[in-house]
Amino acid sequence: MLCNAQCYFIPIEGSPDNLLKECKDLGGVTYAMNSKWKNDRCEECSCNPTGIHCCNIVAIPVGFSKMKCKKLFNEKTCTYTVVEKKNPKKTCPVQQWVM
């Protein structure tokens, strides 16, 4: 497996006959060649003849008042919301996001 901060690559394994049919992820799940999907770790992945390529799709808030606010992660939507600590129904402004 090769990786950088936000993406990684899993080389295809198997016999030459299988190289153009499917890819297998680290959990053993197989995917059709040239397919794309979002996994449960908030990554977009694709299967191509060389293997599986996955990248994080979560934008992380970094430019907000950490004294006044906190970030909340929604696993279903793979998104963060930044809310006031004293009043979690009120959102906080965010000046910067990183991937």
TrEMBL record:
GO terms for cellular component: extracellular region. InterPro entries: PSP94 (IPR008735). Gene3D superfamilies: 2.20.25.590, Complement Module, domain 1. The keyword Disulfide bond applies. It comes from the Eukaryota. The keyword Signal applies. It is found in: Secreted. Coiled coil: none annotated. Keywords: Disulfide bond, Secreted, Signal. Signal peptide: none annotated. It holds the Pfam family PSP94. Belongs to the beta-microseminoprotein family. PANTHER family: BETA-MICROSEMINOPROTEIN (PTHR10500:SF8). This is Beta-microseminoprotein. It comes from Myotis brandtii (Brandt's bat).
